[in-house]
Amino acid sequence: MYEIDLDKIDLTGHPPDKEPERQYYFMAKCREYVQRLNEKWGHPPTYTTVTFGCQMNSKDSEKLSGILEIAGFIPSESEEATLVIYNTCTVRENANTKVYGRIGYLGSLKKKHPEMIIALCGCMMQEEQVVEKIKKSYPFVDIIFGTHNIFRLAELLYQRLLKKKRVIELWENTDQIVEELPSEIKYSFKAGVNIMFGCNNFCSYCIVPYVRGRERSRRMEDILDEVKRLTDQGIIEVMLLGQNVNSYGKTLQDPITFAKLLQQVEQIEKIKRIRFMTSHPKDLSDELIEVMKNSKKICRHLHLPVQSGSTRILQQMNRKYTKEDYLHLVERIRDAIPDISLTTDIIVGFPGETEQDFEETLDIVRRVCYDSAYTFLYSKRSGTPAAQLKEQIEPQIAKERFQRLLKVIQETSSERLKKLTGTIQQVLVEEQNTQQSGYLTGRLDNNLLVHFLGEKSLIGQLHNVKLTECKGFYYFGELNY
Ligand code: SAH
Ligand code: SF4
Ligand code: F3S
Q1: What is the per-residue pLDDT across 379-418, written as a single tens digit (0 to 9) for each?
Q2: Residue 90 CA to ligand 1 centre (angstroms)
Q3: pLDDT band at residue 3 using 50, 70 and 90 as cut-offs
Q4: In sequence order, which residues have a C-beta less than 8 Å from that of residue 331 and are 6 or more positions away?
């Protein structure tokens, strides 16, 4: 976390216009309020953040926590906290439904604790119809904000504390990147770092470009500064985050490639492992393959969402590559880095998907032989071009295809994963195993987990583990000194 002396901020005058100074001013204002509550109640107010969706959202929640802890709120695991923030996701309909169900539950908690403050933010809030529905059906929600103004939490919270009225602030888009705000980190040894925000790809099924705005890259110096600061706190593994990391740097004043950024991060001595998410196949360069091949720190893992194996559907999805392009790319990657682990995302039941198109997806899965794959039933998102397509697939057919796909993925990936049994792999020891006492859980380069006997003191360190047994998507192993 950043060391800022809130006591030095003059709270008698107007708030500064410049960011992040303005937000520190409001953090200090909130802290005064928190101190008053503390005196009144005999204990400080608490907060909890509940995060839905992807790693971008998890990272955003860490920023929310950073702001609240500076303001004096105490973290709580319980949703009976003074301030509850839901950081929402809207990538698929079920992500949405989940959130509505739980807001209802929050309403019942608030009846018991009238002083409770409920805040909603994140991707769902960037949709007009969602905000309308919340205003109408969930009047007990206190603060609504979106993805672009997440850094303004302190200011919005202060408005709510002061006026006791609902605060709604939504920005349609932004070109701003506010640096130097606080952020909590969940683990003491690994952390995510945003390298870019937004997305310009407009895959025809996807809502992300509408709710996260246009692509903006952070300046390389800012990223490297953050990574260095994280190493001072003990971080040894970083995950570089972006919706399409392969197009990092293209829009910067001094354009730079993602591969170059990786090389710079690798120079930071205390960083031992580098991961990144997500790679769009259309922008994966030979330069990146070369850098990965020669790197000692970049994990031998690529998450390379294919979405479909049918060139016809890929075109409808606006993915800008064909089945052959993708297979050729995989060949180039595997030629350069034979032991690389490949994972993917696949959508089943995209509008107009025929049995033949689906067979192409099964075929690509068999040919690439992924280490694992995330599979999704197509979900219609209003406002996206695919939602207009007439030939929406019958849910029954989509579900049946989904099951067939799962079976093929299980067969092909278990083939690959079994091959690692007996090998010695470097793992980052992450936690104690909650199921089996005495066991630790570590993460392999390929992002899979291994459980093995070991002392708690090893947590946060890299160790060699011999994989003794493959259990589907995880392993058992033994420490190998
Ligand atoms: N930027 C990343 C993906 C972000 S969303 C990329 O391009 O790879 C994560 C995954 O959700 C996508 O890869 C896709 O498989 C899935 N997804 C996105 N929109 C979807 C929709 N409308 N229905 C079903 N799955 C969807
Ligand atoms: Fe969505 Fe495509 Fe952007 Fe990924 S690249 S976030 S799937 S629009
Ligand atoms: Fe969901 Fe937003 Fe991520 S829609 S998947 S939380 S970018």
Answers
A1: 999 999 999 999 999 999 999 999 999 999 999 999 889 9
A2: 11
A3: low
A4: none
Laid out side by side, the sheet with 372-377 consists of 301-303, 341-348, 372-377
β-pairing verdict for 237-241 and 216-217: unpaired
pLDDT band at 1 (very low <50, low <70, confident <90, very high): very low
CA of 380 to the centre of ligand 2 (A): 15
* Cα–chain center distance at 136: 30
Q: Give pLDDT, residue 2.
A: 54
Residue ranges in 73-219 assigned as alpha helix (H): 93-112, 128-137, 153-163, 208-212
> Ligand 3: does its nearest atom lie under 6 Å from the Cβ of 271?
no
CA 54 to ligand 3 center in whole angstroms: 5
Ligand 2 binding site (Cβ under 6 Å of any ligand atom): 199, 201-203, 206, 208-209, 243-244, 280
Contact, 279 vs 244, CB < 8 A?
Answer: yes
Q: Is a pLDDT exceeding 90 seen at residue 46? A: yes
CA 338 to ligand 1 center in whole angstroms? 27
Which three-class secondary structure state does DSSP give residue 228? helix
Q: Whose CA is nearest to atom 4 of ligand 2?
A: 243
57 ligand 3 Cβ < 6 A: yes
208 CA from centroid of ligand 1 (Å): 8
For the chain, give the percent of residues with pLDDT over 70.
99
Q: Which two tokens stand for residue 475?
A: 């392993």
Structure tokens at 389: 């397509």
Determine the atom of ligand 3 nearest the C-alpha atom of 95: 1
Tell me the pLDDT tens digit for each residue of 144-153: 999 999 999 9
